Amino acid sequence: MIRTAIFYVALVLSTIFFGAMAATVSLVGGGRAWMDRANRGWARSVLWAAGVRVTVHGLEHLHPSGVQVIAANHQSYFDIWALIAGLPASVRFIAKRELGNIPMLSVGMRSAGHVLIDRDRPRSAKETLREAGGRMRAEQLTLVLFPEGTRSRDGRLGRFRRGAFALALETGAPLVPAAVDGGQRVYPPGAKRVRPGSITVRLGPAIRLEEAEPADRRALMRETRAAIEAMLPGGSPDGGASR
Fold first, then answer.
1. Which pLDDT value is given to residue 98?
2. In the chain, what's the furthest Cα-to-Cα distance?
3. For 42-70, what is the mean pLDDT?
4. 140 in Cβ contact with 113 (< 8 Å)
5. Nearest CA to 84 among 54, 124, 110, 60?
6. What does the alpha-carbon distance between residue 142 and residue 221 come to, in Å, rounded to a whole number?
7. What's the pLDDT tens digit per position in 88-116?
């Protein structure tokens, strides 16, 4: 319980501090580098307070320009902080608007330039995704989406939604599959206590989309899913071949 209390205190304080820093950067135009510092400072503070270590494999698969879409599985809220802290890129998330109901997480994500979409309003969500794609190109961002749309209750990969793949196809940006494991043990859905531990992020080879068409979306979903499954514990070692 002491660790959990430390975590919540650190979450509140770091969100206030780095949220104010991010908001200031947005107002005065401090640039992407300062926004990235605010993002990483927030994530690393929360991970440190929770006693969570992050290990990343496959960084060579990130695009040098930073313009890419990452599709990751989702086990815990800690997946967000692990990816922000562990990836050497200007990471921004596109997440469900329901996160706006979680005060500290909502404040931190909105202040740092992350995007919340309303899945119950498809037309609005589509426009938000289009705007996010424009920001990705203009600001050299790495956009992260969770194709499952929600956290897994048992650690297994859930059904994929189409938004991540529509964005990737529309922008033509490389799509990097990512497998995040360990968050469910640290802070599973519905948990009240935080357990110290480790989170591992594995990145697969980027799937090139320069010549892909909207009709390729189902094939892209299958390929991405196979790649993520192959990188999760117990996955097939040859399930993530890139085209």
1. 61
2. 53
3. 92
4. no
5. 54
6. 19
7. 998 888 766 665 566 555 666 666 667 76
Residue 17's closest CA among 36, 47, 45, 54?
A: 45
Give the span between the Cα atoms of 174 and 209, in whole angstroms.
6
Tell how far CA 206 is from the center of its chain: 16
Residues 174, 206: contact at Cβ < 8 Å? yes
Query: Taking the CB of residue 102, how many other CB atoms lie within 10 A of it?
Result: 12
* pLDDT range class, residue 1, cuts 50, 70, 90: confident
What mean pLDDT comes out for the span 63-86?
A: 90
Alpha-carbon Rg for the chain, nearest whole angstrom, is 17
Give the residues across from 115 on adjacent strands.
Answer: 94
Distance CA 183, CA 179 (A): 11
> Position 129: which residue type?
L
CB atoms within 10 A of CB 193: 11
Q: What would the 3-class secondary structure string for the chain be?
A: CHHHHHHHHHHHHHHHHHHHHHHHHHHHCCCHHHHHHHHHHHHHHHHHHHCEEEEEECHHHCCCCCCEEEEECCCCCHHHHHHHHHCCCCEEEEEEHHHHHCHHHHHHHHHCCCEEECCCCHHHHHHHHHHHHHHHHHHCCEEEECCCCCCCCCCCCCCCCCHHHHHHHHHCCCEEEEEEECHHHHCCCCCCCCCCEEEEEEECCCECCCCCCHHHHHHHHHHHHHHHHHHCCCCCCCCCCCC
Q: How many Å apart are CA 206 and CA 183, to the nearest integer?
A: 24
Report the DSSP pairing between strands 142-145 and 115-117: unpaired
